[in-house]
Specification:
Blueprint lengths: L2 E8 L3 E8 L2 E4 L9 E2 L1 E5 L5 E3 L1 H8 L4 E5 L14 E3 L2 E3 L1 H20 L2 E9 L8 H17 L4 E6 H9 L8 E7 L4 E9 L2 E10 L3 H13 L8 E3 L6 E3 L3 H6 L11 H12 L4 H12 L3 H15 L4 E4 L8 E4 L1 H7 L1 H17 L9 E5 L6 H10 L4 E4 L5 H9 L2
Parallel strand pairs: 1-10, 10-11, 12-19, 19-20
Antiparallel strand pairs: 1-2, 2-3, 2-4, 5-6, 5-7, 8-9, 12-13, 13-14, 15-16, 17-18
Helix pairs in contact: 2-3, 4-13, 5-9, 7-8, 11-12
Bound molecules: adenosine-5'-triphosphate and magnesium ion.
Length: 410
Amino acid sequence: MQAQTLAIDFGTSNTAVGFMLNGAPVLLDIEPNSPTLPTSIFFDYDSRETLVGTPANKALIDGEYGRFMRALKSVLGTSIMHEKRRLMDEQMDFIEIISRFLREIKTRAETASGLRFNTALSGRPVHFHSNDPQKDAQALADLRACYLAAGFTDVEFMLEPEAAALANHSHLAQGTIGMIVDIGGGTSDFTIFEIVKGGIRILASHGVRVGGTDFDRKLSIDHIMPLLGKGSQICKAFGNETMPTPNAIFHNLATWQKIPFMYTREIRREADELFRYAAEPALLKRLADTLENELGHDLAFAAEHGKIAANIADAEIDLSALERRLTAPLSQAALGQSLEALTAKIKTAAAETLASASLTPDQISSLIFVGGSSLMGVVEATLQSQFPTAKPHRTSAFTAVIEGLTLATR
Ligand SMILES: Nc1ncnc2c1ncn2[C@@H]1O[C@H](COP(=O)(O)OP(=O)(O)OP(=O)(O)O)[C@@H](O)[C@H]1O
Ligand SMILES: [Mg+2]
C-alpha cells in the first residue's frame, strides 16, 4: 500500500479532508453524506468513549454525562494548551485532546480510501494570533505537535486563503485580480491573487483573529449574559452600597473555548456568592444554575443559532435549555450593532491586505467569499462597499479551502 498525503482543513468550527485518487481530487464524506464535520469532541464519562463531530454535539444537547469541547483551534498558542486536565481518569493536555480528534479523522480517511496517509498537508490561518508573532509561532508549533501525536510522520502547512485561491482560479479569466475573503469560525483570512497563464500568482495574504465564534461571544455578552446578571448590582456585605457584578465570569462563560473550564468548585462558589448578595437574585440564580447544570455550551449554541436566524430576519435567542420559555429578542438591527466593532476589524484587515499588495480597491475585480461567517450580511455588505467595483462570487463556503489543499497534494 502506497503512503500518500492527506489534505486536512482543521477549522475552528468545521473540519474536512481530501486526497488525490487516480489523479483526481476526492473530498471524503467524513460524516454520512457530508464532506465536513463539526470540530467538536465529547469525552463520554459513562461509556468512556471519545466522540467527535455531530455525535459529540448530540451528546452535549442530550445532556450525556461527560465533557464537551469546541473551538479547539483557538487554544493553539495559548498558555492553557499545555496544562494537564483530568478527563476520563486520564491527565490530558490540549496536544493530546486535539491529536485524538486528528487521529480519528486520519483513521476514517484510511478506512474509507484503503490508502495510508503518513504525511498531512494542513491548512493554517495567516495569523492564529493578531499582532503577536511569538504566540503565532507557538500556535503553529502546537498544531505540528498535534499532527505528529496523531500518527503522521510529517506535516506541511499551507495558508488557508491561498488554498481557497487555488480552488477558485479556474473560472476567472487571465489577468483578473481576485481576492479571497475567508471568514471562518476563528479567523478572517485574505489572499489577493492574479490569474496568470497556467495558474495563479499570490500578491498578498493577511488575516486577523476575528471569526464567527467572536460574533457568538459578543452576542452572548450583549443579549444573553444580562439575563444572567451581567451589569446588575451586588449589595455589599456591610452598608447600603452596591457595586456592579464582575465582568470576567460572564466573558469567560460566553467564550466557546473557555466554557469547559467554568465548572470548577471555585467558579461555582463565586457564582453562589454573587447570587447571595445580588440586588436582583432571579438573574444571578440563572448564572448559578448554568454552572451547576453545565449549560455553558447550550447557551453558546443558542447564541450561534440566534445569530444565523437574525442574519435573515428579526429573531429570538432560544434559552429554554436554561429556563422554560426564556428567550432573548435579537433583531437584525441589534445584530448589526453588536457586530459593528468586529466587522470593523475585518474591514481593516482587508484594507491592510490591499495595501501590502500595493493596489487600490478598484483593481480588485473579483471578491470570492468563502467561510461560514462570510454568509453574514453585515460582513458581505462591509466588504462589498469597500470594493464597490469588484464582482462578488460565492462558491462552496465550507469546502473551498479543502478543495485547494487537496489539489496542492498533487
Ligand atoms: N448560514 C450561516 N450564516 C452565518 N454564519 C454561519 C452560517 N453557517 C455557519 N456560520 C458560521 O460560520 C462559522 C464556521 O465557518 P467555517 O466552517 O468556515 O469556519 P472554520 O473553517 O471552521 O474556521 P476557521 O477557518 O476560522 O478556523 C461559525 O461561526 C458558524 O456560526
Ligand atoms: Mg476555515
